[in-house]
Amino acid sequence: GNKEITWMMLEAGAETDVVNSVGRTAAQMAAFVGQHDCVTVINNFFPRERLDYYTKPQGLDKEPKLPVKLAGPLHKIITTTNMHPVKIVLLVKENPLLAEVEALQKCYRVLDLICEKCMKQKDMNEVLAMKMHYISCIFQKCITFLKEREDKLDGFIKSLLKGRDKDGFPVYQEKLIRESIRKFPYCEATLLQQLVRSIAPVEI
């Protein structure tokens, strides 16, 4: 029930897909006994080594896909458990290395590669794939604001927080999240189908 210890164990190399005598993983056992904070930590964990792989040239590449200086800031965003779009944009904004068009382009391409890997590996991880795709979509929207708006990322944050006149509902934020789900490239994913089923009938 201690999420800090769960995190320490994961960072020390604990395997998340090992099962116990009744075929349950640690996350499944934690969910079963109501330890939802621990489930969140396990499901959001992404080992730094898996990201560092992209900081070295692979195959015929002369350059790595991700500059070493971006690995730390990107890893911080990948492993955050608060998925609110404003929180993600603030994490981008607070790091000058990240808050640039070229840096974000490299980052979102790496996220797309990780998303693809999560879907194509033997033990498919749809949750992590969807998370990588979602962050990638937010990065792409950050790029648009950095290129086109004078107020840059502040303008993006304002758009996300602005409520409509009649009830204060943040329509732009809702549309962004729905659009990111719609753009998820793996139509056969169970998670995507569940999300679409629960969201599609609900009017904005």
From TrEMBL:
InterPro entries: Ankyrin-MYND_dom_contain_2, Ankyrin_rpt-contain_sf
SUPFAM superfamilies: Ankyrin repeat
PANTHER family reported for this sequence: ANKYRIN REPEAT AND MYND DOMAIN-CONTAINING PROTEIN 2 (PTHR24150)
Annotated protein name in UniProt: ANKY2 protein
UniProt source species: Bombycilla garrulus (Bohemian waxwing)
